[in-house]
Amino acid sequence: MHEPLGVLDTVESVANRRVSAVEVTGECLRRIEAHDRTLSCFRETYPDRVVDAARRIDRLIASGEDPGPLAGVACAIKDNIVTDFGRTTCGSRFLADFRSPFSATAVRRLTAAGALIIGKTNCDEFAMGSSTEHCAFGCTRNPWDLDRVPGGSSGGSAAAVAAGLCPAALGSETGGSIRQPAALCGTVGVKPSYGRVSRFGLVAFGSSLDQIGPFAGCVRSTALLLRVIAGADARDSTSTPLEVPDYLAAIDEPIPDLRIGVPRQYLSDENHPAVNEAVRRAIEVFTGLGAEVLEIDLPLTAYGIATYYIIATAEASSNLARFDGVRYGRRASLAEGEGLYDLYARSRSEGFGAEVKRRIMLGTYVLSAGYYDAYYNRALKVRRLIKQELDAAFARCHALIGPTAPTPAFAIGEKADPLSMYLCDLYTINANIAGICGISIPAGFAQVDGRTLPVGLQIQCKAFDEATMFRVARMFEKSTDYHTKRPEMGKGG
Amino acid sequence: MPAITTTHLKIGMEVHVELATSSKMFSRTANIANPQYYDAAPNTLVDPVVAALPGVLPVMNRRAVEMAMMVGMALGCRIARFTKWDRKNYFYPDLPKGYQISQYDLPLCADGELEFPVPEASDGTTRRVGIIRVHLEEDTGKLSHELPGGRPYHGSLVDLNRAGTPLLEIVTHPDLTSAQDALAFARELRNICRFLGVSEGVMQRGHMRFEPNVNVLVTTDDGREHATPIVEIKNLNSFRAIRDAIDHEHHRQVEAWTSDGIVQAPGNKSTRGWDDSNGATVLQRQKEEAHDYRYFPDPDLLPVVVSDTWRQKIAARIPELPIQRRARYRRELDLSASDALALTDDRNLCRFFEESIEAMKAIAEAKIPARRAGGASAKLLLNAGAKRANERGCPIEKLGITPTQIAQIIVLREQERIGSTAADELFGLLCETDADALTVARSNNLIQVRDQGRLESWCTEAISAQPNAVQDYLNGKDAALGRLVGQVMKLSGGQADAKAVRAGLVKKLHRE
């Protein structure tokens, strides 16, 4: 069997009829069949549906019609993004059988571009987690080492792409949930600027932080995917009216007089040595390409986590109030004499997992009378300061680079303490707080306990400057071959 | 114990007005407060946004914001240049999202006043109530324990048709001092909303819900003042309930104070409901519950920035308001305060009334001065019209008669070609036909007969038929003349000109 095709190769091969959409999709389904029992990336797949859709693409191509820029690309959707077919569970018992009557805008745009929705991928419950362990339906495994987590919360999407089960996937980020699993699985993941992609159909966690973003095997593929899903949406008031540039148009042109910033705080001694080593090599790569590398001071970096866990949980406590057992989802059966309060308390107690409950309680607390100013309001002030600090940094350089995550993939069950889990997002979280864009690309490997684990490099740019972000990432990718390496099961066969 | 010398009511109002936009506040689904959708079956005005399905987002209805601005402007409020949406978090089955989108600390409109006519004054005197704030939010759904049709149901039923309807909350200063004034305020506010076209103001449909905050200042003969605890009366949706509930609270609070002496203090505000059948308020919540709604800005919605251009555009849409219109009617058309008040109960009626006056001007040969025309039209509409509108349960302007026909009746009446009874009858006939008033009056024999020959023969016949009446009249009982006039009218089938008949009879009787 041949190597699984990436997004661009698929588009090209299908368009030129070297291979049919039905064939490439069949190959994805075969690989899912072969490997997903082990990996548990998918919550469910849609074999009949996706083959039907592939046939339509083949017919379009045969009749000479334009099948769209993503024709024939099998795409997985994180299970917190709704589709009007199949289930959308958000990894929660509460929504174990939930079927949405509508599809997310991003999904509709993918479909309209010829992409084929192959299945829904596992995630931490309501995207709350950094390991894809906090799911009601079992954890996803890292294709590089089955005893390790894929990262999270979009772990299913990242692992599926890394293992070659499908060339593309959508994930969502609130504090690093695309970039961190991309790094831990050795694939490319993009967190678009806040407002770049419509959130309509993304089940809300922290509404002011949430974004949908793509995973794929290379930078250009993610650029193509983002171009398709991005853009204003009348159903999301927070989506930007700014035009979406053709990211691929100039993606191979290096940025002239590139200035790269390296935040001092990102190269902490607490990071795994291989992580810091990867960043240092990346600095050399960029220097070798003629870039000027500046050390940047971002003293507020450390406050990101605290700020995030106030704002995100406050919004989550309110966003998740709709899961009340009245209209859909889990409804506890009540005993004689139990009333409305019991319906709420029991349905929610039964439906939500521990991490979700923890965050709802935290969020409820920080919004409570008497605590609002001390927590929520103060967090908003720090958020403004973090934004200003990053604005100042981007006035000096085109892009910031640094590690995506402090460590490579950790063992399943290793981070039992919630705080240690929260620290996984140390370097990604401020991009969400400030609304800027970021990408994680493969940038090296760590040898841990005799296993080879991928390490990611993060590139962040100012809000709505994804074009620069992709070009910088592409400069690095063209000079290195990390993105071509796959885990054993990601290779052919 | 010192005796009570006086008691004074102090009333503030919280009013909720459902705006009649075509779609809901934050979704594209139809709005039940719009007349087109009044009778929608339960849960048919629901989409994923209204039902708060996972993944949906609210999108602001700009038209609702504009309507709210219009109300704010009509109340002389300051319109905020910058405002935002906040989430008010609480659980209830009629609240699908688990929060209501509202405006917490930055209301769209603030600091205004409402001027309303003093009901008992015949000279058009007005009073003022200060408006603290006007903000926009979304209505909740409805819970019931009855199946459609009224059969009881074991359990609760949720109807989300009303959920998400744009809802305006208006809060006044406690400036009202009587139940009558509270009622007059409520009526005036409804009229303003109707004139602005932001609500149909149908009370039975819950388009406007009033919540008076009531307490009493009791003065005793030792010169001391005692304020009773504030009571909030929830959800009054008829004018009568507003008046009766406040009157009831007035007496109840004075009595309660007399027996327990409890005065207003932090935390002793209570909430009461109105029991219409017993005519009494009923305690709902004793203590102000420490509700913590955990308000915070809704991250799904952008703040609202009101530019000068936008504000000016909306200001230009504000029509002449009831109070201005009443003043104009009294000034230009010489209407009485009560006629002016009755006409301005409805914007459409005003328009109809004014059209009838315009139509009169068009009948050039009539040459009726505006002042006379106005009074005549108002009387006709508020008597002949109101009577029929009431019988048929439809507004006066929709009875079928046209403003031109109204004008024609008035002209006929001014020319003394029809009598007042005939005018009323003609009004009724014209509701059913497009023909002009004169034709209809003729074909129905409503035109007064002034033919001297016929009048005289009727008079002669009446005099010979009623010798007793003649005798009485000649003996100085003037009232007996009426019996003779009646006899002539009967003989003429109502067509005789009563004035001419009277003159003819007198002349004949004195000759004899």
Entry summary:
The complex is a heterodimer of chains A (493) and B (512). Chain A is α/β, with parallel strands linked by helices. Chain A has 15 helices and eleven strands.
Describe the structure.
The complex is a heterodimer of chains A (493) and B (512). Among the domains of chain A are: 7-253 and 479-484, Amidase signature (AS) enzymes (Alpha-Beta Complex), CATH 3.90.1300.10; 302-372, no CATH class. Helix content of chain A is 37%, strand content 14%. Chain A has helices at 7-15, 21-39, 47-62, 105-112, 155-162, 179-185, 219-229, 273-288, 304-319, 340-351, 354-366, 373-396, 418-422, 429-434, 466-479; strands spanning 42-45, 74-78, 116-121, 168-173, 188-191, 211-216, 259-263, 292-296, 399-403, 437-448, 451-461. Chain A has an eleven-stranded mixed sheet with strand order 1-3-2-4-6-5-10-11-9-7-8. The longest helix of chain A has 24 residues, at 373-396. The model of chain A has no long low-confidence stretch (mean pLDDT 96). Chain B is 38% helix and 20% strand. In chain B, helix 12 (452-465) packs across helix 15 and helix 13 runs antiparallel to helix 14 (480-491). The model of chain B has no long low-confidence stretch (mean pLDDT 92). The chains are: A alpha/beta (493), B alpha+beta (512). At the A-B interface, helix 9 of A face loops of B.
